[in-house]
Design a protein that fits this description.
- By secondary structure, the protein is α/β, with parallel strands linked by helices.
- The chain folds into 2 domains: 260 residues, 3-Layer(aba) Sandwich (Aspartate Aminotransferase, domain 2), CATH 3.40.640; 134 residues, Aspartate Aminotransferase, domain 1.
- 40% of the residues lie in helices and 13% in strands.
- It has a 7-stranded mixed beta sheet, sandwiched between helices. It has a 3-stranded antiparallel beta sheet with strand order 7-6-11, with no helix packed on it.
- Helix 6 links the parallel strand 4 and strand 5.
- Helix 1 packs antiparallel against helix 9 and helix 3 packs across helix 7.
- 49% of the residues are buried.
Length: 416
């Protein structure tokens, strides 16, 4: 797809980076005996766990499926509640509702969209006032920056809550641990589970896919069972002996049981092969994205207060999934839609991440009086600019130049 700008092809806000090795990996699977779950899935899970320094990585069909499985594995259900920051994708909150639990929305830092310990503390207080039993907290590592995991985990622990990191934006990032050390996102050093996404615009692409990582073998076993219809094939877990075993006491080779209902959330070998090939280049992808973000920072930092990069988290070594800026649309007198449309006319795609979830009609009907000033303030100003491997420094300069010219001209007219 091309834009009207004669200087180059259309620049979307995000795009996968596929090379010949990726294509060959997928073709090899297409020529093999396995297209659905097979040896490539096991190989990908082992490589992912090793890369992140975690005991178990349980792959599945999407980041949303991974969030749902995490809720199921914790046993969340009716009568329970979980705290979710309002600035996130719909799936973080929806997964909690999918198991019948209540969502308590937390506010965020208005300058970067990350939930802070003080936001979590206020959400716990609102939950207590409403008589809700909070059993889990879902920190979100937005845009590839990490939340304060040490502070959030300590507070969750005081309330006897599980911690599930929504790390769908942040594979390749590191978070501070509060003791002077840092841990890879997905290592679950300060959480019970972490959820990853391999959607094409993410740093590692599977076409579509996700994973849940954990160091808890019981959680890993539940995740594996629930992603595959709830079935078990381990003879030690069989409950109906007269069906399960032959007269000699051996398990019948065809036999399986379903002690609880599950879902078909398995990853295919086709998707796993692509993700495994991409995982080999994770460090390169992260470095490329950081270099582009650094160039953006330099150019945007010189533009003035009307356009600023989002606030950097001091608890994070980011792996940028998005490059988001904060624009004073009110002060410049130009609407965000106008900016987006005009940039698109110049071959530059943008997006907004995200509309605060507590503002969605479904959730607003549940808690119509909820006010989260930080989330609303972040949403009012944010805009995501193109960021993907394959972009050049010249692309960044063109994007910032177009944005600067548009905002600058409007500001000049307003001043006159």
């Amino acid at each position: 797809m091309t834009g009207t700008d004669p200087r180059g092809a259309f620049l979307p806000y995000g795009r996968q980076a596929i090379d010949e090795a990726d294509i060959a990996a997928v073709v090899d699977v297409l020529k093999s005996d396995y297209l659905t779950t097979g040896p490539k899935v096991a190989a990908f899970e082992a490589a992912l766990a090793a890369k992140l320094g975690v005991r178990f990585a349980v792959s599945n069909s999407s980041g949303t499926a991974a969030l749902h499985l995490a809720c199921l594995a914790l046993g969340l259900g009716p009568g329970d509640a979980a705290i979710v920051p309002s600035v996130t994708f719909l799936a973080t909150a929806n997964a909690v509702r999918m198991v019948g639990a209540e969502v308590v929305f937390a506010d965020v830092d208005p300058d970067n969209g990350l939930m802070r310990p003080e936001d979590l503390d206020q959400a716990f207080a609102r939950a207590a006032a409403a008589g809700l039993r909070v059993r889990a907290v879902f920190p979100v590592h937005l845009a590839g920056q990490c939340a304060d995991m040490a502070g959030l985990s300590e507070l969750a622990q005081r309330h006897d809550c599980a911690v599930v990191e929504d790390a769908c934006h942040a594979i390749g990032a590191y978070h501070a641990c509060g003791d002077g050390s840092a841990a890879a996102v997905g290592s679950c050093r300060l959480s019970d589970m972490a959820v990853l996404s391999f959607h094409p615009v993410k740093t590692v692409a599977a076409g579509e896919g996700g994973a849940v990582t954990t160091n808890d073998p019981a959680l890993a076993r539940r995740l594996e069972r629930l992603r595959s219809h709830g079935m078990v094939r381990d003879a030690q877990e069989f409950e109906i002996a007269e069906l399960a075993f032959d007269q000699a006491g051996n398990a019948n080779p065809w036999y399986y049981e379903m002690p609880q209902i599950g879902w078909n959330y398995r990853l295919s070998d086709i998707h796993a092969a692509l993700a495994l090939s991409q995982l080999d280049r994770l460090d390169h992808f992260v470095e490329e994205r950081r270099a582009l973000a650094s160039r953006y920072d330099d150019l945007i930092g010189a533009l003035g207060d009307e356009i600023q990069p989002i606030r950097r988290s001091r608890f994070s070594m980011p792996a940028w999934h998005l490059y988001s800026v904060l624009i004073d649309f009110d002060g410049t007198g130009i609407e965000r839609a106008q900016v987006m449309n005009r940039l698109r006319e110049q071959g530059i795609g943008t997006q907004v991440h995200y509309i605060p979830v507590h503002r969605q009609p479904y959730y607003a009907r549940i808690d119509p009086g909820l006010v989260l000033a930080g989330a609303d303030g972040y949403y009012r100003r944010t805009l995501s600019l193109p960021l993907f491997v394959g972009m050049t420094q010249a692309d960044v300069k063109r994007i910032v130049g177009s944005l600067s010219g548009m905002i600058g001209r409007r500001k000049a007219r307003a001043a006159s």
